[in-house]
Amino acid sequence: MNQATLAADAPDLAQAQADMRAAYWHGAFGVLCSALAWGVAAAVAALGKPQQAVWTLLIAGMFIFPLSMGLAKLAGRAGMHEKTNPLGRLAMFSTFGLLAGCALALGVATQKLEWFFPTMLLVIGLRYLVFTRVYGLRIYQACGLALAAAGLLLGALLFAPSPELKPLGPLLGAATGAIIETLFGITLFVQGRTGR
User: Fold this and answer.
1) Where are the transmembrane segments (predicted)?
2) Burial of 119 by CB count in 10 Å (0-12 exposed, 13-18 middle, 19+ buried)?
């Protein structure tokens, strides 16, 4: 099954998406692991260490995929899609966009630290829009748009923050990511119990 076949043959696309859903429990573990990374970053920000919170999110983010694969396997799923599934390549290519977005967010943070988390909310939100195609689930559109909208709103709020609000920016951003992803991750987990 190649990209041209997949684009032209809807049953092949549906089969590829079903393989991704079955292997990764609808992606629920990835979203929940991501929520955990946001949550740990929020805890670090709450301790008054915003720069460490930035690095916490980035470093914890490196463990999301391997941890989610392991959890999927523990839950009785394959934890890996079929090697011939072209949607695996789409997911992999979206990782390059994610890495570029992380670099952009770091660059933004050097100028305005409180904008790091809103930028990351946008970056992660846009990646989840790709997952709409990978998993064939519209819930990823809702999740991606919710994260992106939160990033835009929080960025606007922190454009010229008051002295009282400025130190709370990293905590607000990280906690927002944790809450949104936890809610969608739980929903995906419940939906994914069927394995289809």
Assistant:
1) 23-47, 53-75, 87-109, 115-132, 139-159, 171-190
2) buried
